[in-house]
TrEMBL record:
InterPro entries listed in its UniProt record: Homeodomain-like_sf (IPR009057), HTH-type_TetR-like_transc_reg (IPR050109), HTH_TetR (IPR001647), Tet_transcr_reg_TetR-rel_C_sf (IPR036271), TetR_C (IPR011075)
Keyword Transcription regulation belongs to the record: yes
Coiled-coil positions: none
Domain HTH tetR-type: 18-78
Record-given protein name: AcrR family transcriptional regulator
Protein origin, superkingdom: Bacteria
Organism placement in taxonomy: Bacteria, Bacillati, Actinomycetota, Actinomycetes, Mycobacteriales
Keyword Electron transport among UniProt keywords: no
Length: 225
């Protein structure tokens, strides 16, 4: 399966080779994994992809757009789960989010944001690539929870969404390590104790679904108070 292209540019002249696009993005990710963002050079990416710097520039106008396109491949967020269990859905959704983030070195996200922060266009592309997709996925889960009466209808949706999203973003940008599963679960519990109509009922529902759907020998993790 080919990697989607995210440069936002219009092709000019002869059609580009999508296989070369894929090779360049894969080479970029490989260099980021091995040496980080600061040491990434277009020469090294071109060498690994079996192409040239001009070929890269025809696709992406510089290092930052190229890295954003490569990272977008890893941060593609799937459709959020909808099991009818608010704790399960938030926990699973955040775990999918964390799994994607853990494929990117924290120092890469920090250095990349520093290069984007002072340029409004690049900052917007960073936000749309790194922040907004998982934020929208979590937002769908929160909306469903409000709709079925699990979360208070009068809560500040955007504030809660900021809190949940920032659990991952803050650690990725300012910490040495990504958020762990245990830390994420504890943080969700802390947040929902204030946002839920009846938090203990949510826990009971989650545990009931755990007993109903976990097969013998399964590894599904239950939520606990």
């Amino acid at each position: 399966m080919s990697i989607p292209h995210h440069s936002g540019e219009t092709a000019v002249g002869r059609p580009r080779d999508p296989q070369l696009d894929d090779a360049i993005l894969r080479a970029t990710l490989a260099v980021l994994d091995e040496t980080g963002y600061a040491k990434l050079s277009l020469e090294e990416v071109a060498r690994r992809a079996g192409t040239t710097r001009p070929a890269i520039y025809r696709r992406w106008p510089g290092r930052v757009p190229l890295v954003l396109a490569a990272i977008a491949v890893r941060l593609a967020v799937p459709t959020p789960p909808d099991t009818g269990c608010t704790l399960c859905d938030l926990g699973e959704g955040l775990n999918v989010f964390l799994a994607a983030y853990r494929t990117i070195r924290p120092d890469v996200l920090i250095a990349l944001y520093a290069d984007c922060a002072t340029d409004p266009e690049l900052r917007g592309r960073y936000m749309s690539t790194v922040v907004e997709p998982p934020r929208q996925a979590v937002g769908c889960t929160i909306d469903r929870a409000i709709g079925r009466g699990d979360l208070r209808a009068d809560l500040d949706r955007e504030m809660l969404l900021d809190m949940v999203s920032s659990l991952v973003h803050y650690r990725a940008l300012f910490g040495r390590l990504h958020l762990t599963d245990t830390e994420a679960e504890e943080a969700i519990e802390t947040l929902l104790r204030g946002a839920a109509v009846d938090y203990e009922a949510l826990v009971e529902h989650s545990e009931a679904m755990e007993l109903e759907h976990t097969a013998p020998g399964g590894s599904h993790t239950a939520h606990h108070t």
